[in-house]
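Ligand: flavin mononucleotide. Inputs:
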Amino acid sequence: MNYAIVYSSQTGNTRRLAEHAREVLGEKGCDFVGAPSDEGCLEALRAADVVLLGSWTDKGAISAELAPALPALVGKRVFLFGTCGFGGSDAYFSGVLDRFASALPEGAEVVGRFMCQGQMPPSVRERYVRMAEKDPGRFAPMIENFDRAVGHPDEGDLAALTTALEAAGLA
Ligand SMILES: Cc1cc2nc3c(=O)[nH]c(=O)nc-3n(C[C@H](O)[C@H](O)[C@H](O)COP(=O)(O)O)c2cc1C
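Predicted complex:
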């Protein structure tokens, strides 16, 4: 099996998942790990049997940075993965993954998916604290969510990703 991992990651959370997936799947058959704008990406996607497509969550959707890679996924088996700031609910993760999947071209087959929480920059918490002074009902839960996200993806998330890759028959 030849595979490629293409991902979009602004602050490193989704990159951590991509690097873990690469470790789990191994060097053999790995044609590419990187961003869509990296040299050789599109050629590797076209040649791959399986593509692992990872994204951070940007306003509920897959990162626009991945758009150039998506047309190359026609006829490919795709494992979708990503990180998002809000956590604590599988239903939320599943909804985000559904939106990621809706960005795929017709003819791409999703063989597995994984989503976990990813920590956010401290500036976000500072903004929530300022907003909570005016509207604590709305922003205190967001501060709690921010604090829950710190340290994610963690070892438990990486182990869960391994399990999802195994369930998809990739590892
Ligand atoms: C502009 C922007 C929009 C975001 N929108 C969402 C969102 O709609 N839902 C969510 O759960 N997280 C959202 N996040 C949080 C990131 O998706 C999350 O921190 C992710 O783990 C970042 O991954 P990265 O480190 O790979 O870039 C947003 C972050 C930014 C900067």
